[in-house]
């Protein structure tokens, strides 16, 4: 199939995307005008947003951010969005809790400070609301009327909700065999939801075909033809973590990998904060987490390869089940450049980690969260993550969407008649 670089039939008359100046190729550096492009016309490399970032004093910028709304729009000066973005109808994600996880730290032997960035607190209960919110602004700017995506589950719900609020039509595509919680969540907002008989990589291939076809005219696929903008939403995780630590870089961050977009953009966000003087420039390490049943990036990391060999996913961590991750090679670069690592855990370890987080911190994460905490635990035990340093673990989704993972082992302790005698017999009282 030919690689498409331009897509949709949208208006591109001088879009107002705030500080975004151009798109630039991550491989050859060639620059393109802002538009619904995602691959370089010269080398087919992925495009990303290049900025004219604010030039004032760091103190001034910090104050301006702190005076902003309690959502991702406080960082509007660093995002490809118009200055009045907060006044438009959107679902305003972000500024989720950074939980100081002292109980978990004690259990894992971490003494340098352990934090959980809990993105289950977003409007549709996953980090995907961040990336979709940015893509919606690009869709508006380019005149798209239908919002779409290929999804491993959470993205479909985030697109459905954001489109509903923005007054856009939505039509989203998922593998047909997703968890019930994700299917319902994607359908309830009233857009169209299409199950594809195949895995995520099949869904994604289908969407690429649809983009080049009249059937998909005027459609903004948030993670395909709007991907350069979409990706920028993940930078807000980096901004928030640093701001919530008191404008300080963490020493170590553990991030789950599906396509690898989130991990690469968190790194981009940290680099920007350093460049802008908003945080002190010091080394940090980025760790990537995958499930063993879909671990193409982890396998490449361990083998010392620069390229990622695609896999056929088979894991309960369906939100991370991308066998051919678009940003895999960039994840490898970042893990190696920062002195981090990429590791994977079994489905059993995923379940154990979900329950560990719930039991110690009262946070019920989805399977992706189990992957990330499971890998954190494994790397601490292996001496790769340093327990004496400040560590942030990103929980990207809500356990209510993946109940099947723990339902077999999380049930009522006892079922009794409503009498004290019955309760006494169950042996659960104090006396
Ligand atoms: C999509 C998703 C990710 C990571 O996605 P990337 O494609 O790597 O950006 C992580 N966690 C959850 C819960 C997700 O839905
Ligand atoms: Zn290029």
UniProtKB/TrEMBL annotation:
E.C. code: 4.2.3.1
Classification via CDD domains: Thr-synth_1
Pfam families: PALP
Superkingdom of the organism of origin: Bacteria
Keyword Hydrolase on entry: no
Key word GTP-binding present: no
Xref: InterPro entries: Ser/Thr_Dehydratase, Thr_synthase-like, TrpB-like_PALP, TrpB-like_PALP_sf
Residues in Tryptophan synthase beta chain-like PALP domain copies: 94-397
Cofactor(s) needed: pyridoxal 5'-phosphate
SUPFAM superfamilies in alphabetical order: Tryptophan synthase beta subunit-like PLP-dependent enzymes (SSF53686)
Keywords: Lyase, Pyridoxal phosphate
Similarity annotation: Belongs to the threonine synthase family.
Protein name: Threonine synthase
Organism: Streptomyces globisporus
């Amino acid at each position: 199939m030919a690689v498409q670089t331009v897509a949709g039939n949208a208006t591109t008359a001088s879009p107002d995307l705030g500080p975004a100046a151009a798109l630039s190729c991550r491989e050859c550096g060639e620059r393109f005008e802002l538009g619904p492009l995602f691959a370089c016309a010269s080398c087919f490399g992925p495009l990303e947003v290049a900025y004219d970032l604010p030039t004032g004093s760091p103190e001034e910028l910090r104050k301006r951010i702190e005076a902003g709304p309690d959502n991702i729009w406080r960082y509007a000066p660093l995002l490809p969005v118009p200055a009045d973005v907060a006044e438009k109808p959107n679902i305003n994600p972000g500024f989720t809790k950074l939980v100081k996880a002292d109980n978990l730290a004690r259990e894992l032997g971490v003494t340098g400070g352990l934090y959980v960035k809990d993105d289950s607190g977003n409007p549709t209960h996953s980090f995907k609301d961040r990336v979709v919110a940015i893509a919606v602004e690009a869709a508006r700017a380019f005149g798209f009327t239908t919002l779409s995506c290929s999804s491993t589950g959470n993205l479909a719900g985030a697109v459905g909700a954001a489109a509903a609020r923005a007054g856009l039509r939505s039509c989203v595509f998922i593998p047909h065999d997703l968890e019930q919680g994700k299917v319902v969540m994607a359908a309830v907002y009233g857009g169209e939801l299409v199950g594809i008989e195949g895995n995520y990589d099949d869904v994604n291939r289908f969407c690429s075909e649809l983009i080049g076809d009249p059937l998909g005219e005027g459609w903004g696929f948030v993670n395909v033809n709007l991907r350069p903008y979409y990706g920028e939403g993940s930078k807000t995780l980096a901004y928030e973590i640093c701001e919530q630590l008191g404008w300080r870089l963490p020493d170590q961050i553990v991030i789950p990998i599906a396509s690898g977009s989130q991990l690469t953009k968190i790194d981009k966000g940290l680099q920007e904060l350093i460049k802008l003087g908003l945080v002190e420039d010091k080394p940090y390490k980025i760790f990537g987490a995958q499930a063993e049943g879909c671990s193409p990036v982890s396998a490449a990391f361990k083998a010392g390869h620069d390229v990622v060999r695609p896999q056929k996913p088979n894991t309960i961590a369906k939100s991370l089940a991308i066998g051919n991750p678009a940003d895999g090679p960039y994840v490898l670069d970042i893990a190696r450049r920062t002195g981090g690592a990429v590791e994977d855990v079994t489905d059993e370890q995923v379940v154990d980690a979900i329950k560990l987080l719930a039991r110690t911190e009262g946070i019920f994460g989805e399977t992706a969260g189990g992957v990330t905490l499971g890998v954190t635990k494994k790397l601490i035990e292996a001496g790769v993550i340093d327990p004496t340093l400040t560590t942030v673990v990103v929980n990207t989704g809500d356990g209510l969407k993946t109940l099947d993972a723990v339902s077999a082992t999380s049930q009522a302790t006892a079922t009794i008649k409503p009498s004290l005698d019955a309760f006494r017999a169950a042996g659960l009282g104090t006396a």
